[in-house]
Structure formats: C-alpha cells, structure tokens
C-alpha cells in the first residue's frame, strides 16, 4: 500500500497568539484622526477641551516620549520632563496648521514637527555652547552685562509669571471644598505643598541656597513639606502636572 506525499514533512504549527490587526504600541490611528478633525472644526471650546484631553493628549504624549527616546533627541541642559513638555507645547501650537487636503496623515505631520523641533533645540544648544566656548577663550575674565534684556526675554518672564499665577488659581480650585474629595490624602498634601512653594518660591529657594527653580529643589521641598517618599510624590503629582500642562496650553492658544 502506497501513501501519497509520504515524503512531505508536516511543518509544526506556530505557538502563541495570532497577531492582531493593530500593532502593539500603536497609539495614533483612525480614531485619533477623526477626533482631531472634530477638534479643529468645533467652535465649542469646552467640547474641544474634552476631545483633546480624552483622545489627542494621550496619543501626543506617547508620540513625543517615543520620538525623544527612539531618536535620542535629548537636550543636555534640560531634564527629560522639561524637554518633553516643551516639545508637546510646541506641537500644540502647530497642529492647527495641519491640512488634510494635501494627503498627509496627522500622525506623520505631528511626528515631523516634533523631530524637527527637537533637532532645532539640539542645534541651538550646540551653537550656544560653541559660542560660549569661543567667548570664554577670547575674554576669560569678562563679566556678562546683565542690564541687557531683549524683548523675547521680557515676554518670557511675563508669560511665566502669569503661568504661575494661573496655576496657583487652578490648584486652589482643586483644593476647594467642592472638589477636594476627588483627591486622595497624598494628592491633597502635595497640592498644599505646591501652593506654598509657588506663592513663596523666591523666599523658599533662597533658603535652599539654590536660585534655580529646578527639579531637585522642588523634590527636596515637597519631601520636607509632605514627609512623603519619592514614589508617593511622583504618583501624587500626576494630576497637578496635567493641570499645569493644560493651563500652559490655553495660554499659548489665547
């Protein structure tokens, strides 16, 4: 008795889950494209805020973080969060320029905007560094003239001061009698600590012997004020970071 195809060896079946139609980690698809279209067309700011918070912000957040890490576009003078939020803020100012009639996807457009901006920041840093090195070599004992402050610097100072004032108001609203129940105990402690810091930051950082409003000093103050550890502070800060970002975004769009 002969068996047909007796020399054919059956290939073992592949184990594991079948691949889904959606790639793992894929965070910007048709749903986000439609959400953005609704965001741009709407004249209702409240509705726009909802779309941005629920659909666009999570996608943009993952996009920016992925681009910085994947292409190693860090800025040496900034920590990761500073670079991240600066890039995200810049992206928000550019998304209304997107024209779908040209055949491009919003995902590609936003990715290009982020990469170009990060590379621009890196190039600016290198130019400033090289310029400073050259200046120091020519004038090693020269003091900088602190009297010269251009208009861009003045505008930046004004913007940052207003941002701090608005952030204080938003945190006070979160800690009001009507809203405080939405915060857990650690979030409440951190909220009061942030108010104390933002309302008295010049005096606080003078006592800390640090003139820079940097991450290390902030973390040190929050630990001293709340008696929480680093992980508890990171977890409790999430709502306040989002609040700060949305406040900044509204100011940029105004």
Structure commentary:
- By secondary structure, this protein is mostly helical.
- It is 66% helix and 0% strand.
- The chain contains ten helices and no strands.
- The protein has helices spanning 30-41, 45-70, 80-94, 106-138, 151-174, 185-199, 201-207, 215-226, 230-236, 238-253.
- The longest helix is centred in the middle third of the chain and has 33 residues, at 106-138.
- It is globular and about 55 Å long.
Task: Describe what is shown at a glance.
This protein is mainly α and 254 residues long. The protein has ten helices and no strands.
Task: Give the total of beta strands.
Answer: 0
Distance between the termini: 86 Å
Low-confidence stretches: 1-25, 144-148
Helix content: 55-70%
Based on helices, strands and strand pairing, what is the structural class? mainly alpha
Number of helices, counting only DSSP H or I runs of 4 residues or more: 10
One letter per element, helices H and strands E, the order comes to HHHHHHHHHH
Q: Whole-number average pLDDT? A: 76
The biggest beta sheet reads: none
Fraction of residues in β-strands: under 5%
- Integer-rounded radius of gyration: 25 Å
Note the topology.
Blueprint: H1 30-41, H2 45-70, H3 80-94, H4 106-138, H5 151-174, H6 185-199, H7 201-207, H8 215-226, H9 230-236, H10 238-253
């Amino acid at each position: 008795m002969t068996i047909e195809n007796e020399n054919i060896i059956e290939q073992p079946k592949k184990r594991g889950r079948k691949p889904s139609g959606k790639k793992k980690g894929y965070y910007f698809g048709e749903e986000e494209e439609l959400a953005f279209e609704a965001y741009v067309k709407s004249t209702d700011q409240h509705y726009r805020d909802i779309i941005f918070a629920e659909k666009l912000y999570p996608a943009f957040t993952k996009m920016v973080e992925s681009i910085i890490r994947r292409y190693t576009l860090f800025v040496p003078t900034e920590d990761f969060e500073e670079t991240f939020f600066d890039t995200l803020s810049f992206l928000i100012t550019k998304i209304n320029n997107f024209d779908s009639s040209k055949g491009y996807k919003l995902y590609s457009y936003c990715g290009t905007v982020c990469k170009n901006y990060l590379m621009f920041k890196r190039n600016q840093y290198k130019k400033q560094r090289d310029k400073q090195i050259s200046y120091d070599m020519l004038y090693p004992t020269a003091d900088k003239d602190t009297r010269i402050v251009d208009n861009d610097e003045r505008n930046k100072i004004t913007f940052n001061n207003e941002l701090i004032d608005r952030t204080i108001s938003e945190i006070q609203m979160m800690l009001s009698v009507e809203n405080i129940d939405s915060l857990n105990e650690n979030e409440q402690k951190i909220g009061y600590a942030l108010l104390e810091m933002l309302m008295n930051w010049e005096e606080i950082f003078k006592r800390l012997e640090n003139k820079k409003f940097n991450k290390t000093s902030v973390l040190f103050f929050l630990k001293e004020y709340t008696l929480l550890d680093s992980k508890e502070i990171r977890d409790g800060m999430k709502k306040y970071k989002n609040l700060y970002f949305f406040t900044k975004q509204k100011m940029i769009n105004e």
